[in-house]
Each structure stands twice: as structure tokens, then as C-alpha cells.
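Two quick folds needed for the group meeting slides. Do the first one here.
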Amino acid sequence: MKIRCIANTGASLPEHDLDPNGGYTRDLEFGLTIGKEYVVYAFYEWKGQIWYYIADDHYMYYPMQNPAPLFEVVDDRLSKYWRFNLRPNGLLRVAFSQWFTIPYFYDKLTDQEPAEVDLFKRIRYLMDREAEKPPEATETEDKELATAPA
């Protein structure tokens, strides 16, 4: 899945995406370049709000969450590495399987735990390669599915 940045400040966010206690104010400037495309490594939905995890312009070694209203989807193909996770509290998360199977994966990643940093580097490489595949390749696979015997 690929998205393109269409805005990079809190002033562009709807009121429900702002949270002054969390640092999300109208004055906030995100580490994003308008017009630039980003690969989505994970995303979540919580109470009607979508947040994408991407390697933004300040990327060091882990993806940052950014609110969906700052982007438009330019390639809606879902990654073959993604898994679905619905928490009892209603939080919907879509990410690669290790995000869910390794306890506190994202916390360990942001804390620069070597195993998690290495794992994300490898997953990022695979997902970036996958995202470079032209959409026409998927259309060819869809045509094969349509002609496959039942």
C-alpha cells in the first residue's frame, strides 16, 4: 500500500484528530513532504480514525504513525505480509505478523532493541520491494484467478 502526502501540518487535520495533550495541535509540523509517496508498513483504526505507520522524512530506524487525513491512497493493494488484529477494546490493527506475535514489538523497536531493529529492516526491505511492483502485475494475477478452474 502506498500513500501520497497532501498536507503536513496540524492545521490540515479535522478536529477529532487533534489532541493537545498528545502534541497534536494545529501548529504541529509533521516530518512529511507534500507530494511524496510513502509505503505503509502498518496501520490502525481507533474510534473512526486511521493512522499509518510510515518511514517519514525523519526516519531513523522505526516507522512513525501519521494521521490518514494528511494523505491520499495511490496504491490500495494490501501487503502480503500483513495480518489482521482486532483487540477486545475495538482497536483494529493491520501489520506484519511479528508486530502481534512478539510481545511489545513496537516498544522494543523504538527502544532500539537490536533484534527488533534488524527484523524491521528486513521487513521494510521486503515491503518496499513489494510496493515497487507495478499495479498491472496484480491485474494479471486477477485475470489468472478469473480463468482458473473452480
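Then this one, please, same format:
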Amino acid sequence: MDTAPRITPHLDLIGLVVSDMAASLAFYRRLGLELPDGAESAPHVEATLPGGLRIAWDTEDVVRSFDPGWRRPEGGNRIELAFRCATPEAVDAAYEELVAAGYQGHLKPWDAFWGQRYAVVLDPDGSGVSLFADADAADAAAGSATDATDAT
């Protein structure tokens, strides 16, 4: 029987490699992430998300400084961040706000067969960022508004 202690790593940080730090931070600020002021010119930026998970951005030059063979991925991204919205209408509003600000929409909001309102916008490096809400979130929000009205 193996009695060696098990090493159990835990997810602590999601790292993004970016070609333009300022453009990337502006995009993620629009999605509500609180990022350090003046970080646009830094080669590495970190922020702690609610719940303690961290997210970090590194410029391509920083990555090449410790991994000289690193090359920008081609042919589509392999990882996608997903942002939960409060309601299906909030998915539509967030999508429209980002597209109006000049970011590229990839999938317009639609009612997905798995029970969510779902859309995808591309960040400045072309990585997909999902926006979603449970379809029944609209019913729950409407019920809360009705309950509040009935209470008066």
C-alpha cells in the first residue's frame, strides 16, 4: 500500500498572455474586474477575484523572457473565460455594450439548448469570452419584482 503523502495542488491563478496590456485591461475592466490603477504600462498585472482566485496578465515579452521558445498560439484559442450575468437581458446588454465599444462579437446572444442565454465576445487578443445567464434567472428576477410589489 502506498503511504506517501499526496500532493494536491489547487487552482489559484488563471494567466493570460497579451499582446497589448492596456487594451486587454480596458476590455476586462468593462466586464467589471477591479484592476490596479496605472497597470496599463506594467508587463505583469494581477488581480484577486471574489472567492480568492487570482487572474494575471503577462505581455508576450515577459513570457519570452523565461520561455524563449514561446510562440503566439494560432488557429483558435484553447481556453475561454466565462462571465455569469444576473439575467438573460444582462447578457444582451453586456454584449451590446462591448460591441458598441468596438470589441468584436463572435456569437450574438441566443437561447442555448442547455438552458442559458449565451454569447461570446472576443478580447483584444482574439480569445473568446463567454457571457451567460441561466434562462430561468429572468423568471426569478420577475418573481422577486412581483413579490416586492405585492408586499407594498
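Slide caption for protein two: The radius of gyration is 19 Å.
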